[in-house]
Amino acid sequence: MSTAVVNGAEAQEAAATKPLGMRKNGKQWHAPKKAFRPGSGLTPYEKRAKARVALAATKAKEKELKEEKEAERKRRIQALKEKRAAKEEKERYEQLAAKMHKKRLERLKRKEKRNKLLNS
Question: How far is 32 from 16, CA to CA, in rounded Å?
Fold first, then answer.
């Protein structure tokens, strides 16, 4: 009995690969039409549910990766801003040092830091 099933499968394969001959309407360049089966596109509920779960997991992972990327970008931008602010502050103090006495400049720095701490 198993040989009959195997032979039947082989016969179907051979039929699928064998050319069908000339088409009746003469349009051999068109692909052969298949039987209309309205239920063939339907999938069972379990399969659809699994697909939805998989899609939700994929979207969550994508969102997580995007958030990580955005956080890294913001961190880099913040580091740049802090670096530039420190550089400007240093340049400002250097200009003041050229004009003022060193001890007066240090007093001024301490006073400014106190004001920054009070204001923030």
Answer: 12
